[in-house]
Amino acid sequence: MTVSTAGPGTALPTGRPAVPARPIPAAPGTLRSRGTLLVLEAVVAFAAALVLPVLARGFKLNPLDRIAQVSGLAAIQLRFALVGLLFIAAVALAMRLRRGRHFDLAARIAAAALAGLASGFVAAGAVVALHGTPWPMFGLNGDSGRIVEWAHAVANGRPSGSPVYPPAPLHTLGYYAEWFRGGNTAYAFKDLQILGAAAFGPLVYLCWRMLLSPVRALAFGVAPAFALIDAYKPYSQTVLVVLVPVLVAMVVSLRRSGTDGWRPLLLKGAGFGVLLGLLFLTYSGWFLWSAAGVLFAALLYFPWRTGRLKGAAFLGAALAAFLVVAGRYLAVMLTEGQTTKDYNFRFDNFTDPAYYLMWRTDMPGKVGDWPPPGEYGGVGLFALVTFLCLGAAIWLGIRRPMVVTVAAMFISAWVMRMYIASHMYETQTVQLYTRTNNQLLYCGLLLCALVAHLVSLRMAAARRTAEGDGTSRTGFPGREGAVIGALCALLLLLGTVSSSMADRYMPAKDGTYRILPWVSHTITEQDGSCPEFAPGGTCSKDGDQSWLSSIR
Q1: Is the peptide bond before 136 cis (omega within 30 degrees of 0)?
Q2: Which ranges of the chain have pLDDT less than 50?
């Protein structure tokens, strides 16, 4: 790709007067400010995320029938492709009309729309999977049941069953149930599973927009995140994929703080503190895995020479705001969290700790040889590419906070993983170290994407230089073709990945995550009736538990 990271309307020096800078894509005067454009992107992304789930509500099918599931996925894919192609066609049309004046605006809207449509695809899959039952995935069993119970207690002014469990999801579910479901937290959790999955893409996209231009945010920030999208407990993975760009942006701002004015510096620091506090209240685990890496990056990019006092003020404002938002929960974690032990050994605890590329979840189903045998000393090609990209990203971007911070978070999670796993036999505790799989995978994919990002920036710079001196050509076409080509490729990539992640939750009694919606169709509703598609028309209070025999 040769998409520039400059904002819309930013003139790039070419050295050749005959090539004018692209005009600002702001025919309506209200679109000239960057803030207004970002608001427009947010509105488009969240609206697009709701399109497919709303359309899926009209599907007439039996979600327990495999042919119906395949037809449902194909129907969602068709609508995803058609709507996405409309946005891409608008970009192509904008390139041709009025000398491309509105091209950047159209590309911006299309990138935001694709981010929303992609997560909307997974949410629409959840709509299909839960069609005919009011229960959330897994009903009142397992984590789902505990969350429903604790949220109901919180909504009624009582303490939850676990002081260390993140309070934000419980309060959100409790109040949502009071406002929209008459206090029924169980049925409300189904809504939030779908809405949470739908919000995944827009939230990731908007956070990466703090660092990258629209198409680059979609390609290099959003696309890697879709390896982790989750419709069962969407908030935990969403916090991870949002936390990474937020921390990177904070390190970038810290580096620049030495030359910032006092007012914007303090406001920016407080803003990061509030945002990090909200993320900590939603899911705190990722902060533990990331802390050492972020501390290293912060020390590396602290403005030691240009403004130590301002750098300290920036961090102080961020810390103060964080403590205001999440200080009470942090105190609980520092006290209660030290005595909370995880003794539940799961499938991945018996796997080589250096293998992190695929997480089979707590319900792996039937598993053969695992990890899959690799070509190089038992290590597969995917792992080799990830490690090569780690080195290449540092080589190409050693002076860029974005690259160094992501790499540091990868290494930090790796070290914490090995530290906890090395004490597992002695303490007979797990402490959820296998969840570092997700952070390692996401940061690894980001490093691969950042290599492509840095290479494309150099290609774009080379092309501008060649055009500027008028003596040579690089052989690469203009940026418009790169943008349209990238959007087409991302449409197919995100559509394919989203379909796979949606299929992961199609009901089946196989011991994997597919059992979660299956059980939801076998639980007696609160009025005493069975869900519409209950197998054989039978149901029970806890739902079908016969699947447990397949994993024992």
Answers
A1: no
A2: 1-31
